[in-house]
Design a protein that fits this description.
By secondary structure, the chain is α+β, with helices and mostly antiparallel strands. Helix content is 32%, strand content 27%. The chain binds adenosine monophosphate.
C-alpha cells in the first residue's frame, strides 16, 4: 500500500474559533497547525501550536512549508502577512476579502454596491470631518474605528451633538481613521452565515436572531422565527457579496431589521459566534463546512435540525450542571482563564419545537439566575 499524506490546515490565530475548526477537521482526517503568539492560546489544547508573531517571517516560512491551506480564526491578521503567505501557499478567504472586511468603510461601501442598504455613514479623519459628518447624520449616532474594532470595542455612542468632543477625545487619536454611523433603532438583529467553495458552490444556514449586551453577543436563536422573505433576500445578498469577493470559506453578515428591511452592519470573514449553534443544531456545522470549503471538499447540508438557542458565556463560566442535565443541552468550555469581557464558552440547547426550546432555556436561565439573558428570546418564542 502506498503511504498516505494527510492534509494539514494552517490556522492563523489560536482562539476558540480555531479550536472548534480543529475539532471539526479531525473526523475528516485533516490535521491542523495553529499559529499564535500566546503560549496559552486555547486552540493549542486540541491542535499543534506554532508559537510565533504575525510578523515573524522565519516562523511563517516554516508554517507555510508544513501546511496545505491557510485560513484564519481572526480577521485582523495584517494584510501584509496574508499577502506574503498567499505567495507561498493557498490562503482562503483570499487576502482581498480579508482586507475589505477589516475596514468598516470599505465593507459598507461594498454592501451598498451589492444592493444591501446600510445605516447612513460618513468617513471621519479629522475633528472638522466629525462636525461635517454630524451635520449630515445627526444624533444619535455611533463613532467607530474603521479598523480593529469588534464586539462593540472602538465605538462611542453620540447621544446628542454636544457629545462630539467626548467622542473625539475617546477615538480621535486612532491612526486608521473613523466612521460615523447613524444609530439604527432596529426591530431585531439577524445574521446570515454562509459558505462558498472554490468552485462557487454556495450555501447558507437559516437566519439567526441575535441579542447583544454591551456590544457583545449574548444569546442567539436559530432558525430566527418569522423571517418570511428575509431568508431568501439575505441569501441572495450574501451570494452576491461572496461572488464579488471570490470568497472561499464561511463568513457571516450581521444585519439589522428596520421597517422590515435588511441593513448591513458588518461582515466577519470567518466562522462566527452566531453560527456556533450549527454544531448541534444543523446537519453540517459552520466549522466542518469551512474546513470542507477551504480544502476543496464538497459541502454538507446546512439545514437546521429543529430549533436551537445558544448562550454565550462572557467573563466566567457558570455551573455546567443545568445545561448538562437538559435533554439536548450541549456545553462548550473553551479552556480559557476567566477575564472580564472574554468569551470563555457557550452552551447550545436544541429542541424539536420552539415551545419545548423555550421551556428548556427558561429553566436553565432560572437555575443559573440568567433570566435577563433569555428574556428577549422568550418574548419571541415563549
Ligand atoms: P459592531 O461591533 O459594529 O458589530 O457593533 C456591536 C453591536 O452594537 C451591534 O451588534 C449592535 O447591537 C450595536 N450597533 C452597532 N452599530 C449600530 C448602529 N449603527 N445602530 C444601532 N446599533 C448598533
Amino acid at each position: 500500500m502506498t503511504e498516505r499524506k494527510q492534509s494539514v490546515l494552517g490556522i492563523l490565530g489560536g482562539g476558540q474559533l480555531a479550536r472548534m475548526l480543529a475539532l471539526a477537521a479531525a473526523p475528516l482526517g485533516v490535521k491542523t497547525l495553529v499559529v499564535d503568539s500566546a503560549p496559552d492560546a486555547c486552540a493549542g489544547q486540541v491542535s499543534p501550536l506554532l508559537l510565533a508573531d504575525w510578523s515573524d517571517y522565519a516562523a511563517l516560512e516554516k508554517f507555510a512549508a508544513e501546511v496545505d491551506v491557510v485560513t484564519f480564526d481572526f480577521e485582523n491578521v495584517p494584510a501584509d502577512t496574508a499577502h506574503w503567505l498567499a505567495e507561498r501557499v493557498a490562503v482562503f478567504p483570499n487576502p482581498r476579502a480579508l482586507a475589505v472586511a477589516q475596514d468598516r468603510l470599505a465593507e459598507k461601501t461594498l454592501f451598498r454596491e451589492c444592493g444591501l442598504q446600510t445605516p447612513a455613514f460618513e468617513a471621519v479623519d479629522t475633528r472638522e470631518d466629525l462636525d461635517r459628518a454630524l451635520a449630515i447624520i445627526g444624533a444619535p449616532s455611533i463613532l467607530k474605528t474603521r479598523r480593529l474594532g469588534y464586539d462593540g470595542k472602538g465605538q462611542f455612542r453620540i447621544k446628542q451633538l454636544s457629545d462630539a468632543d467626548a467622542a473625539w477625545e475617546a477615538l480621535g487619536a486612532n491612526a486608521h481613521g473613523l466612521i460615523l454611523e447613524a444609530f439604527v433603532p432596529f426591530e431585531r438583529e439577524l445574521s446570515v452565515v454562509a459558505v462558498r467553495t472554490r468552485d462557487g458552490d454556495f450555501h447558507v444556514w437559516p437566519l439567526t436572531q441575535n441579542w447583544h449586551t454591551d456590544g457583545v453577543l449574548s444569546l442567539s436563536l436559530a432558525p430566527a422565527p418569522n423571517v418570511g422573505a428575509l431568508q431568501v433576500r439575505a441569501e441572495s445578498l450574501a451570494r452576491t457579496l461572496a461572488e464579488r469577493l471570490d470568497y472561499v470559506g464561511v463568513f457571516a453578515l450581521e444585519l439589522f431589521v428596520k421597517d422590515g428591511q435588511l441593513l448591513g452592519n458588518e461582515m466577519a470573514p470567518r466562522v462566527h459566534n452566531s453560527g456556533h449553534w450549527t454544531i448541534e443544531g444543523a446537519i453540517t456545522s459552520q466549522f466542518e463546512n469551512h474546513v470542507r470549503a477551504v480544502l476543496g471538499l464538497p459541502l454538507g447540508d446546512t439545514s437546521a435540525h429543529g430549533f436551537s438557542a445558544m448562550f454565550n458565556w462572557i467573563g466566567d463560566l457558570p455551573d455546567p450542571t443545568p445545561v448538562l442535565q437538559t435533554v439536548d443541552g450541549h456545553w462548550h468550555d473553551y479552556g480559557k482563564q476567566p477575564r472580564a469581557g472574554r468569551k470563555v464558552g457557550h452552551a447550545t440547547v436544541r429542541a424539536e419545537d420552539a415551545k419545548t426550546l423555550a421551556a428548556r432555556i427558561g429553566e436553565i436561565a432560572r437555575v443559573l439566575k440568567r433570566d435577563d439573558q433569555v428574556a428577549p428570546a422568550l418574548r419571541v418564542i415563549g
